[in-house]
Design a protein that fits this description.
Blueprint: E1 9-18, H1 30-44, H2 55-62, E2 70-83, E3 86-95, H3 99-113, E4 120-123, H4 126-140, E5 161-163, H5 164-169, H6 179-185, H7 200-207, H8 210-231, E6 242-244
C-alpha cells in the first residue's frame, strides 16, 4: 500500500458469457475451431468435461472464459472516496447486450478518472483474466486500448495493477484461491448470495436478466475492495457507506 492513494484505485470485475447460445451460431470458421478447442479441453480437463461430452456441452459450460469465443456482458467498477471524514465506496456497472457500447462507456470512465500514471486498477485475478480479456475484446470490437490497460512495453514494476489473488499468494503460484473463500476467512460479506459465475450464461440466455448479472458483478467489486483493505491492514468500509449507482 506504500505510495498508493486509495482514492485513485479503480476496483473492477467483469462477467463473460459464450458469444452465442449455440456454438454452431458462431460466425465464419469459429464453429469448426471451437470443435477443435472442445476436444483439447476434454483431454486437458476430463473431470470437468467428460470424454462423452459433445462440443455444445463444453461450449455452454466453458466458452465464456475464452475471449475468442466469449464476450463481456458486464464490467463493474468502484472507487473509495472520503465524505464527512468517513470512507465511502461507489460502484457502477456498464452492462447490456451491446459489448462494444459497454466497452466504450467503461473506457470513457477510465479516461475521466485521471491520467494513467495516476491510477491503479485492482481486481481478483485481474492480471490473468479481467485485463487481458478486456483488451482482447476491445481489439475484436475495433476499439483502442486505453493507456492504463496497454502495458505491453512496461516493466513489471510499472504495471498499475493490484491483484488481490497475487497478494494472497505471497509468491506461491501453485494454487488458485477464490474470492469467495477469501471473503469467508476475512469475514467479509460474501458476494455469492444470489448467483455464481457458472450461472451467468444461464441467467443471460434463459432468463434474459442482464441487470441481475450486473448486481452480482457489483457485489464482487465491493468484496474485492474490502479484501484489498483487509490485506493492507485497513478497516472495512461500513455497509451503509456503499453506494450502488
Amino acid at each position: 500500500m506504500k505510495n498508493i492513494n486509495k482514492e485513485r484505485i479503480v476496483f473492477l470485475d467483469i462477467e463473460t458469457i459464450p458469444q452465442t447460445i449455440d456454438y454452431k451460431e458462431l460466425p465464419g470458421r469459429l464453429p469448426e475451431l471451437w470443435e477443435e478447442k472442445a476436444e483439447t479441453l476434454k483431454k486437458r480437463m476430463p473431470d470437468r468435461y467428460p470424454a462423452e461430452s459433445d462440443a455444445q456441452y463444453v461450449f455452454a459450460n466453458g466458452a465464456g472464459i475464452f475471449a475468442e469465443f466469449g464476450r463481456i456482458v458486464c464490467i463493474s467498477a468502484g472507487f473509495i472516496y472520503r465524505k464527512d471524514g468517513q470512507e465511502h465506496f461507489r460502484v457502477k456497472s456498464f452492462y447490456g447486450d451491446d459489448e462494444s457500447k459497454l466497452l466504450v462507456e467503461f473506457c470513457a470512465m477510465l479516461e475521466l478518472f485521471g491520467r494513467p500514471s495516476e491510477i491503479n486498477l485492482c481486481g481478483h485475478n485481474i492480471k490473468e483474466f479481467d485485463v487481458p480479456y478486456i483488451c482482447r475484446r476491445l481489439l475484436v470490437n475495433g476499439l483502442p486500448i486505453p493507456g492504463i490497460l496497454d502495458v505491453a512495453s512496461k516493466k513489471p514494476w510499472e504495471v498499475p495493477f493490484l491483484d488481490t489473488l497475487e497478494m494472497w499468494k505471497f509468491g506461491d503460484y501453485k494454487n488458485f484461491t477464490s474470492l469467495n473463500l477469501l471473503t469467508a476467512i476475512f469475514n467479509i460479506p460474501t458476494p455469492k448470495d444470489d448467483i455464481n459465475g457458472s450461472q451467468v450464461a444461464q441467467v443471460y440466455y434463459e432468463e434474459n436478466d442482464v441487470e441481475r448479472i450486473s448486481v452480482y458483478c457489483q457485489k464482487d467489486v465491493v468484496a474485492t475492495a474490502q479484501l484489498w483493505l483487509r490485506l493492507n491492514g485497513c478497516p472495512l468500509i461500513a455497509e451503509e457507506h456503499i453506494e450502488h449507482v
